[in-house]
Fold each of these.
Amino acid sequence: MVSDRKIRVLVAKPGLDGHDRGAKVIARALRDAGMEVIYTGLRQTPEMIVTASLQEDVDVIGLSILSGAHNAIVPRVMDLLKQNKMDDVIVVVGGIIPDQDIDGLKKIGVGAIFQPGTTMDDIVQFIRGQRQTARRACGSLKCPLMVLWTVRATGTPGTPAS
């Protein structure tokens, strides 16, 4: 039988980007929705993020990237997760992602892209929905999936792209 433990989410700001308002808004929304949230803070390396995720036994990693470095950071995080046999961790990325980068991110496993305008509740429901899908498909809380969201400077996430 599958445990009904809370979804554990690690939220991090990788790279040199110093703007963390969106990450804090997402962290609070997830916490208010009953998830356990670990916020690592600013200027995290992919190695620091994956190490903390392993130590905290998280179900979801939330990366907030506004610097434009998503094409370098996200693949590195995914590689490190695979090296550490953490393929079952859901990776959620927030930030300003140009349309021309969407296909490439989907090819490396991005499950959804949220553009500006999505409500916090939509993000929470999406993560919970993935949990239910994982439980049905894998028989456990964790199952491989990568999700992408975009958060504007106001902290408002976007709508899912088709």
Amino acid sequence: MDYVLDNVVEWKDRLVNNSIKSFEEMTAQRWVRIIAIVGAYLLIRPYLLNAAAKKQKKQLEKEAEDLGLGKTDALDANDFRGKGVRVKKGEAKKKE
């Protein structure tokens, strides 16, 4: 047990020392490089997430179709409201 505890203490000391030395030895060029990388990641991330969501949605729709869980001709709740007029989310139904 002592051996494991000694190793953990040594790893912690190395991590602290290496982290401190890394920040002390940072040049302006390295800071600019890190800022550019993080900024590019933050700008690109939403597009990557949207692309992944679309891909996942297509895959789930394909799996649902393969399992026979697609759209059916059965009545749903919207068919009972206003003579079957479908109102999409965010749209307001005009009063006549």
Amino acid sequence: MSERVLDIALTVNGEPIAERVEARKTLVDFLREDLGLTGSHVGCEHGVCGACTVRVNGTIVRACLMLAVQCDGGRVETIEGLSDSGELADLQAAFEQRNALQCGYCTPGMLTAAQDLLKRAGVPSREDIRAHMSGNYCRCTGYHAIVDAIESVAQARSSSSFRGASTASEPGIQKRALDSGSGASRRPGMTGESR
């Protein structure tokens, strides 16, 4: 029996995409296999670990639970696009400075989910941060450093009238955000690249 394929058109990280995909292909597999955007990871394939978190039409979703054909006509933003835009520069720096990552596998999903929370007005409490991040699993770090990093960015953005990565107040953020450096020290989720 042949697999049914459909033509879709969508915008991924600001670029128009037109592809033919299998009707049953998940969004995360489409991004990774068809588009080569490997920053979103496949973890549990049941929507509980958060490793595949991306934005679709401005809302974070689990890309393992969404079919690529459901994004026809939509806008998808992956960790690569969010990182390349500079939107996550201060958050990435805080994760690094506070050792909120180790192996890096969960980091793209963590950053995407954290940014979703930080886009809202105000400084969330530590309890609110924990609740929002509870759908993203990390098996390496424990969660204190992750909560610390997110809280520090929320406070910095609030106190500096944050208008994007260009006004981040933590030292070294601008240099790291703009430094393309060698790929040897890069971690997935910390730049637009992935391994």
Amino acid sequence: MFVTPAQIAELQKGQIDTCTRFRTLSSAPPEKFADLNIAAAKALLEESSESTQSYLGRQGCEGTDVVERRFRATRRSKKLVSYNRNLYSIASAAGAEIAKIVEVRIAESNRKVAEMVDFAAKNAPAGSEAAVSLIKNVVAASNTAYDTFSKAAKQAVSVCRVEYRRRDPSSLNAGNVTTEAVP
């Protein structure tokens, strides 16, 4: 199999496109994390300010103070859960994008290996049919093993997500990323 300049240029273009997608992907999640952290910090500052104003303006009524602390603790725990869900959502979306890129590259590599094996089979000397057949079987078996592993991993992730949502129906979907202030 002879490598032509056009084939090298095509290979380089594919690699540059993949690198560009990874670069774009690597900059988006940190931006989303920063936006989420800024929104959370603003919400925390507002809550602290409200709390301080409330304490400065109050006199007496110790019983209401305990109820108010419990209420704020509950609100804070809900905010923390919401914040963690948003973090998970951002990370999950980034992981899904990386998986898509990797799957495309693996599919391209498999296609090129199949083309190379076919080319070698056409140009193989007489009597080497058994060796060519062995190579084709090895390539097919490795592709099947990868596909099986990939499907099993996706199914395991899906089962985990279903179980998590069953236990916590208020969970966010991985694709619904928000950077609004944490409620």
